[in-house]
Amino acid sequence: MPELPEVAALAGFLRERAVGTPVAKVDVAAVSVLKTFDPPITSLGGLTVTAVDRHGKFLDIDCDGLHLVIHLARAGWLRWSDSLPTRPPKPGKGPLALRVRLADGSGFDLTEAGTHKKLSVYLVRDVADVPGIARLGIDPFDDAFTVDALRQLLHDAGRAQIKGVLRNQSVISGLGNAYSDEVLHAARLSPFHAASTLTDDEITRLHAAIVGDLTTAVERADGLAARDLKDTKRTSLRVHGRTGEACPICGDTIREVSFADSSLQYCPGCQTNGKVLADRRLSRLLK
């Protein structure tokens, strides 16, 4: 799933290539991807891309005051082409969901793999009209995201597990499954630690890990072509997606806890004092 660093890089990529260019046409290959109907998606034709921004994990393309807002969800992606095919795409064929063609022939496709279709596209006059953006919590790069602010957020979360708190977009925006694993590893915290019970030292470490890991990831992704972002993210992760490998910090074996539709990875040596956490799927089978 694209998270804050990848969406920030996509925004920068589009800002460099699309700003100042009129939109020629938008072709919809999967009607289900559109979450709004007023204004119609055809309204973008003839408008000029004036800005590209990011809100949490949402990509915001401003076209003369109309905002094309994209949430790539788990399996969505943006594929840029300097020369798009002239023939319009056939609805319902393959992973293509939507195509934006610019007046110079360039543009991008929004694609989504798999059968669970969660890719979402909105066309709005005000980005606050997108429900997911209206609910966003503080951005980790906001000056207001201080150690004290994080302490209050964790206090308000009560006994909720810290892994879930970090992934909750209404608390802190931009972190997903991968970077929350990375942040917790850097902060040396168990993913199941109750949020409100963190000590001052642990909160300070967690704040530094959030800002530090995301800053490094954004810098690493900056300037990369859209097609290279996924591989760069994958190869840079220390624990996420690396079950069974050796931790690069302590050498312990990276472990996994699986849930119904996701999993997390952690290092027992760095995060749980050597304790191996119970796998939720196996625990249910043994009951």
From TrEMBL:
Tagged with keyword Cell membrane: no
Entry superkingdom: Bacteria
Catalyzed chemical reaction(s): Hydrolysis of DNA containing ring-opened 7-methylguanine residues, releasing 2,6-diamino-4-hydroxy-5-(N-methyl)formamidopyrimidine
FPG-type domain sequence ranges: 238-272
One GO process term, biological-process aspect: base-excision repair
Keywords: DNA damage, DNA repair, DNA-binding, Glycosidase, Hydrolase, Lyase, Metal-binding, Multifunctional enzyme, Zinc, Zinc-finger
Span of domain Formamidopyrimidine-DNA glycosylase catalytic: 2-93
Pfam family, one: zf-FPG_IleRS
Co-factor(s): Zn(2+)
Matches recorded under InterPro entries: FPG_cat, FPG_N, H2TH_FPG, Ribosomal_uS13-like_H2TH, Znf_DNA_glyclase/AP_lyase, Znf_FPG/IleRS
MF-aspect GO terms: 8-oxo-7,8-dihydroguanine DNA N-glycosylase activity; damaged DNA binding; DNA-(apurinic or apyrimidinic site) endonuclease activity; lyase activity; zinc ion binding
Family designation: Belongs to the FPG family.
Protein name: Fpg/Nei family DNA glycosylase
